[in-house]
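Fold this complex.
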Amino acid sequence: MTIDSSPVAFTPARPGQPAPDIATISGGRPAFRAELPDGRVVWLVSGYETVRQMIVDQRFSRALAVAPGRAAPGFEMSAAGSISGTDPPEHTRLRKLVASAFTARRVEALRPRVAGIVNELIDAMAARPQPADLVASFSLPLPAQVICEVLGVPAADTSQFHAWSDAIIGDWQRDAGEIMTAVAELYGYFSTLIGIKRARPADDLISALIAARDEGDRLSEHELTAMCCALLIAGHETTANHINLSLLLLLDHPDQVAALRAGPELIPAAVEELLRCTRLGGLPPARVTTEDVRLGGITIPAGEQVIPLYSTANRDRSVFTDPDRFDVTRDGAGHLAFGAGVHHCLGAQLARVELQEAFRGLIARLPGLRLAVPASDLEFKPGMAIHSLRELPVRWGEP
Amino acid sequence: MSRWRISVDKDLCIGSAMCVAIAPGRFALDERQRSGPVEAEIEPDELVRDAAASCPSEAISLVDAGTGQAVDLD
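Structure:
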C-alpha cells in the first residue's frame, strides 16, 4: 500500500467534549496520517490488536520521539533521557532501579496507609461546610501525599508542586518557556533535596536511588534527578483527574453507585471499568519508527511519529461487548489505560490501589455524593495534556 | 552454564506485556492477555533476566534447570 499523501486534520478531544469518531476519520484503516493542531504530521494507530502490537514493538522508539528538535511542544520537552523518554537497554536499566518499589506486592503493603489518608481527607471534608471542592480537598492531595511519602518528599512541600506540575504537563497551547522554567525549578528543588538525603538517608525511594547512584554507579546524577521529577509528576495529576473524571462518570449512573454501595467487593472490577471508559487526556505520547514497519497491513516508513490511540483499543467491540456501555459489573480487565510494553505505567498498581480506596471511602462515607453545580459549569484548566478539572464542587447527605 | 527454566504465574500476571517487549520472542500473551514463556527452557539470556526483574507483578520466575536454584535477577 502506498502512503496517502494528504494527512487528515485532527484535533484531539477537548475536555468534557465527545471524542472524535476515529472509525469515520480513519476510514477504517488501523493506521492513518493526521495533522495535529500543533502542526505535527503523525500516524495515529487505532484498534486493540494494532495498538497492542505497536506498543510492544521496539521499532517504535520513545527516545527518538523526545530527541531535541523532535519533541512535541509541552511536557515531552522534558522527557529526553528520563524513564519515559528512553528505549531499552537504557530504559531497562532505569526501570529496574524503581520497579521493585512499585510492584503489586509492595503497593499492596501501602494499601492501609492509602486507606488512612482517604479517611483523613474525608474527615476533614466532613468537618467543613458544604459544598466542598473535591479537587483541592481530596483528589489532588491523595495521590500527592502518597507519592511524596513513597519518594520521601516532605509533606510541607507538596503545595508548591502543583504549579510546577500544572506547567510541566502543559500541552502545545502552553508557552514552552513557561514549561522549561517549571522543569528547571523542579530539578533545582530535587537537587537540593537529594543533597539533604545524601547526608541523612531515610527509608524512602529517593534514598534508595541515591545509594544506587553512589554505591552501584547505576545511574548518573542527572538521571537520578530526572527520575525523581518524573515520578513526582506522573504520580500527581494523572491519578487526581482519574478520580475526578471517574466520579463524574459514576454520578451519571446512580444505579451503579448504589450497586457499589451494596457490594463493595465490586470495587476492584469497577475501577478497571472506570479506567477503560475514562478519557484522561488528549493524545498519548508519540513514538518514532526506527525503520519501515508493517502494522495492520500498512507500511509506516522510518522516522515517522506514531501515536497509539489507547481509547480506541479500550472501546474495541471485538474485545469489549457493547463497548460504549459503562457497566461496573463487566470484566474490564485487559484495557490499555496504562499502556503496555516497556513503558507500561510504572505506577499502575499504585494508581489501582489509590482509586480503589478512594471510591471505597467516598461511596461508603459520603452517601448522596453529588455535584454542587451543573456539570456544564465545570471548567478544565486550559493548555493541559490531560483533562484537568479546576474545581469539582460537591455536596453529600440528604438533599 | 546450565539452562534456565522460565515460568509465569498467570494469577499474578497483569498483562502489562513488559516481558514481551523487553525480551522479544521469549514471552507471548494468551487470549486472556496473560503471559507465558514461548519456550519453557532456554540458554541463559540477559534479556529474559531483565524481563523477570522488571515484571510489575513479579509473576516471572527463573530457575537454574540443573540445580533448581532461583536465578539471581540483579
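The interface with chain B takes residues 52, 55-58, 88-89, 92, 95-96, 99, 102-105, 333-334, 338, 340-342, 344, 346, 348-349 of chain A (CB under 8 Å).
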